[in-house]
User: Which sequence fits this backbone?
């Protein structure tokens, strides 16, 4: 992270938030890529077929749904552990 | 940096709070990958069915239980 020393407090906060959001998005994309490649392209051929593309699209939606379920469940479990 | 002491304290608290959020997100990424491998067999539709959803929830819950159980067991050995 590069700071010149003249940023306002708000600017520093905004920049930190935005860099963490980018890192989170990159990790999500990398995970989807890894898991959906494994699930949808078991035998890579010379190009992606339209069936492959449709399958990758369904897999991406489903992975995001799984992320959401896991996130909610993890937060719920963490709350339970605290009490 | 030309921040006064109060601002530095405020930024410190902000960084800690954002770090905790990032750590939570990173754990969710790890669990999603692990539990996806266990629970999802196909992508015939773009939605999770009830069985898959329950499997993901159980996977998260039992993984947490496992880590609690291991810590308990190690504590008895001290």
Assistant:
């Amino acid at each position: 992270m590069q700071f010149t020393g003249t940023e306002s407090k708000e600017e520093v906060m905004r920049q930190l938030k935005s860099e963490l959001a980018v890192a989170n998005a990159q990790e999500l994309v990398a995970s989807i890529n890894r898991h959906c490649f494994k699930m949808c392209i078991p035998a890579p051929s010379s190009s992606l077929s339209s069936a492959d593309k449709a399958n990758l699209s369904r897999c991406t939606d489903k992975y995001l749904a799984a992320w959401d379920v896991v996130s909610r469940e993890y937060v719920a479990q963490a709350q339970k552990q605290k009490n | 940096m030309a921040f006064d002491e109060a601002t530095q304290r405020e930024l410190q608290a902000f960084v800690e709070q954002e770090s905790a959020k990032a750590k939570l997100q990173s754990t969710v990424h790890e669990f999603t990958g692990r539990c996806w491998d266990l629970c999802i067999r196909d992508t015939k539709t773009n939605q999770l069915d009830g069985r898959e959803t329950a499997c993901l929830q159980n996977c998260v819950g039992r993984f947490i239980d496992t880590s609690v159980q291991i810590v308990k067991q190690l504590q008895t050995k001290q």
